[in-house]
Design brief:
single chain, 288 residues, mainly alpha, di-copper center containing domain from catechol oxidase, two-stranded parallel sheet
Length: 288
């Protein structure tokens, strides 16, 4: 049966509670930490040797689509009415808007140490201790909008520049790809600092704290953010019918990215699945 992912701002009070409760139960069961470990393991950069699948590569979108499905399956084992909602950051743009409410994700971190002290994922409530990360911090951290050096969330216009590109991805198939929908949405730009953080990447920086880096899964907003990114891929597919994941086939041995990126019909670790097999989600879920 096809289920529906909703805009988080449209969830009823009951739907909000069920989603939060399911997340906390997945955490209580000890399952959540494996999601964090997986994202850390597969978040490799251009400068590292070996295969890249989660970031800075064409498989950024199908990899996270499959990753979202794993989390959603875990949530639905707890409560089969729950799906992952999406956060449309082009509309809900302030630090007090949904999802930053006490009954959902809580708010920003306190100024002294960026510790989140409101909402169900505050460490003080005893249900959300960080056990796997890149630091020893046990509490969830955020710095919504970067108070000391503010940045703004991406706009609808920023998204339009990505959605308007009819080609999925292009050489050199990494963070320096100037053309192609994938990197325009993933958001690696030239230069340094805020000007180089675009679309998806800028949202991670805007949230701050744990959302910056490979351990970003520790913040539950990771899933709402990537559900919206997944929805944007769906919109791009509808706008450009016939456009497919690229590269279509393995890169030639002489190509600098040979063996470093996944082609459409190549296996996408850690699953026995290819990007081509997850391009169409219509048999599993839809977006409201």
């Amino acid at each position: 049966m096809v289920y529906t992912r909703k805009d988080v701002s449209t969830l009823t009070r009951s739907e909000r509670r069920r989603f939060v409760d399911a997340l906390l139960e997945v955490k209580r069961r000890g399952e959540y930490e494996q999601f964090v470990r997986t994202h850390i393991e597969y978040s490799r950069s251009d400068g590292e040797a070996g295969l890249r699948v989660a970031h800075m590569a064409p498989s950024f979108l199908p990899w996270h689509r499959r990753f979202l499905l794993d989390l959603e399956e875990a949530l639905r084992r707890v409560d089969d009415s729950v799906t992952v909602p999406y956060w449309d950051w082009t509309r809900n743009r302030t630090t007090t808007a949904v999802p930053w409410t006490d009954d959902l994700l809580g708010g920003t971190g306190r100024q002294s140490d960026r510790q989140v002290v409101t909402g169900p994922f505050a460490h003080r409530n005893g249900q959300w201790t960080i056990k796997v990360g890149l630091t020893d911090t046990e509490f969830l951290t955020r710095d919504l909008s970067r108070r000391r050096d503010p940045i703004a969330l991406p706009t609808a216009g920023d998204l339009e520049r990505a959605l308007g590109d009819p080609v999925y991805d292009t050489s050199p198939w990494n963070s320096t790809s100037a053309k192609g929908f994938r990197n325009k949405l993933e958001g690696w730009g030239p230069g340094r600092g805020a000007v180089s953080w675009r679309t998806h990447n800028r949202v991670h920086r805007w949230v701050g704290g744990h959302m910056v880096g490979g351990a970003s899964v520790n913040d539950p907003v990771f899933w709402l953010h990537h559900a919206f990114v997944d929805l944007l891929w769906s919109r791009w597919q509808r706008r450009h019918p016939g456009a497919r994941y690229l590269p279509a086939g393995p890169l030639a041995p002489g190509d600098a990215q040979h063996g470093r990126v996944v082609a459409r019909h190549e296996r996408m670790p850690p699953w026995d699945v290819t990007p081509g097999e997850v391009e169409d989600h219509s048999g599993l879920y839809r977006y409201a």
